[in-house]
Amino acid sequence: MKKIYDKSAMAILPYKDNIVFVAAEKQLDDKFIVSYKMYDFQNDQVMQVRRSAYLEAKFGDEFLYFSKMFPDFINYKCAKLPDGRLISLYPNGDAAIFDKNNDIVWEGALKYRNSGPAGVACVDNSIWVSFPDGDTILRYNAATMREELRIGSQRDNAFSKPRGLWADGKNLIVCNSAGKCIESVDTSSYVVEKYAQFDEPVYQYVKCGMFEVVLLDSGIYLL
């Protein structure tokens, strides 16, 4: 692995052919002063970028609208459905789906045993959500938002504090933070296989073309 940035990194997103990320510069009480940076794969450089680059990576072309709707946008997790709808969810469980006109077409709470979510990804017309406190991931029907399937629980060892999710074709990549590994879930057969093992907790995985990037306790790494 190759280290891209240090442990102050907080969140990573693919942006065009590169990645953008949030870095904590300093902490004041319970709040962080952050900066926004981009890693250029071709030039192997980290550079400062405007907040708008991170917002565009997260919300798309309508990022100004969503940045006003979600003042704490860093902690919101978002994913795009195949039909262009956007699902957003917050750590306390608050969730909403927006159509192409940015109108809310569904809102509610996504929780598992009273615990909130940490990650979301869309595979076909299914929405997958991770719940670290329950050691589980849940699949929801994107049309009805009804729970359809659960993988993992505190009684088995399928996952241990799953956090970041990433859709890679029909496979779902799960960042198993306490297990210090990444698992790959075949969403057709529901077979769970080890994808990568680390020496520390892993929180996010993103793929940009041929490049795979992870956020670990100690920083951002290129696999």
Topology:
Elements: E1 2-5, E2 9-15, E3 18-28, E4 31-40, E5 45-48, H1 51-59, H2 63-69, E6 77-80, E7 86-89, E8 94-98, E9 104-109, E10 119-123, E11 126-131, E12 136-141, E13 147-151, E14 162-168, E15 171-176, E16 181-186, E17 192-197, E18 202-208, E19 211-216, E20 219-222
Antiparallel strand pairs: 1-20, 2-3, 3-4, 4-5, 6-7, 7-8, 8-9, 10-11, 11-12, 12-13, 14-15, 15-16, 16-17, 18-19, 19-20
Helix pairs in contact: 1-2
Provide structural commentary.
The protein is mostly beta strands and 223 residues long. The chain has a single domain (2-222), classed as TolB, C-terminal domain (Neuraminidase). Helix content is 7%, strand content 53%. It has two helices and 20 strands. The chain has a four-stranded antiparallel beta sheet, with no helix packed on it. A four-stranded antiparallel beta sheet has the order 2-3-4-5, with helices on one face. A four-stranded antiparallel beta sheet has the order 6-7-8-9, with no helix packed on it. Helix 1 packs across helix 2 (63-69). The longest helix has 9 residues, at 51-59. The chain starts with a strand and ends with a strand.
Backbone structural class: mainly beta
Strand content: over 45%
CATH class value: Mainly Beta
Total DSSP helices: 2
Q: In terms of quaternary structure, what is this? A: single chain
N/C terminus separation: 5 Å
List segments where confidence is low: pLDDT < 50 over at least 5 consecutive residues.
none
The H-and-E topology, N to C, reads as: EEEEEHHEEEEEEEEEEEEEEE
**Sheet with the most strands, sense and barrel status:** 4 strands, antiparallel
The CATH superfamily bears the name TolB, C-terminal domain
- Let me know the number of strands: 20
The amount of helix comes to under 10%
How large, in whole angstroms, is the Cα Rg? 17 Å
Average the pLDDT over all residues and give the rounded result.
93
